[in-house]
Amino acid sequence: MTSTVRATTADPPRIGPLPGRSRVRSWIARGGSLGWTLAGLTLAALAWTLVVASGQFPRELFPSVPEILGAGHALWQEGLLADDVLASLRRALGGFALGAVAGIAAAIVTATTAPGRNLLQPVLRLLSPIPTIGLVPLAILWFGLGESSKALVIALGVFVPVWINSHAGLASTPRDYLKAARCLGARRRQTLFEIVLPEAAPDIVAGLRVGAAMSFVLIVVAEMTGTTAGIGYRLYQAQLFSQADQLIACLIVLGVLGALVDLILAATTTPMTRWAGEEH
């Protein structure tokens, strides 16, 4: 007669996460991407606070988080920050629109026509590596210190990534699609708007998002001369008078503006690129 031997030792108890940690993680998860963003910003603020508290750096150059927030609040209370934000947004979005339209138009020409591919594309490839900041003196020489030179500088900076990405997307349209369109009697205009552009949409959107970020980078350079309002102007003034708290506050505002514009651009262009994810 056989007997069944049962194990007398139970499995060791599993040690779960600490209650505090699990609660924090659940709060973050509940907030989705916003929760993770706030968590990252909180960690960055804590890291900055530790750096300041270490005493290894001059306090006038490394202000505390409350001092930075206080400087931003003071600028807002005086009405300066609101004027700066509106002025910078107007210039950045105007230059972005100009550069984006020109970049997509140039990409259509260089990717879909023989003259554009043979004549225009080599010129643009030669000019695209030139740093846009290096063109600031030329823009001022041509257009002076007014708004035209600022729009030109931002538009040129936006043009390059939009053209490069759009050209790559348009030029990589599968040949089978183009042959099928010709066999079905599609005209050149139909092929462009119903096949080539939708196929290149993810690359065009990527170029637009890079261009939008570039517009906020160049707004700082564009506003350092010939302006009395704008985030770039305020940054220059803060650096001139060694006001590190105002300078960092303005940099944070500039980053928030750029992030918001990118989120809006991503949300509005999602219907154009949703099919790309569905193919895979």
Can you walk through the features of this model?
This protein is mainly α. The chain has a single domain, classed as MetI-like (MetI-like fold, Orthogonal Bundle). It is 78% helix and 0% strand. The protein is built from 10 helices and no strands. The chain has helices at 19-53, 65-77, 80-112, 114-127, 136-143, 147-171, 175-183, 188-222, 231-240, 244-279. α3 (80-112) packs across α4. The longest helix is centred in the last third of the chain and has 36 residues, at 244-279. The model is unreliable at 1-12 (pLDDT under 50).
SSE diagram, text form:
Layout: H1 19-53, H2 65-77, H3 80-112, H4 114-127, H5 136-143, H6 147-171, H7 175-183, H8 188-222, H9 231-240, H10 244-279
In short:
The protein is mainly alpha-helical and 280 residues long. It has a single domain, classed as MetI-like fold (Orthogonal Bundle). 78% of the residues lie in helices and 0% in strands.
Proportion in helices? over 70%
Distance between the amino and carboxyl termini? 61 Å
- In terms of quaternary structure, the protein is single chain
- The CATH topology name reads MetI-like fold
CATH class descriptor name: Mainly Alpha
Structural class: mainly alpha
Q: If you compute it from the alpha carbons, what radius of gyration comes out, rounded to the nearest whole angstrom?
A: 27 Å
Low-confidence stretches: 1-12
* Domain unit count: 1
User: At CATH's second level, what is the architecture?
Assistant: Orthogonal Bundle
> What is the makeup of the main sheet?
none
**Shape summary:** elongated
| Count, helices | 10
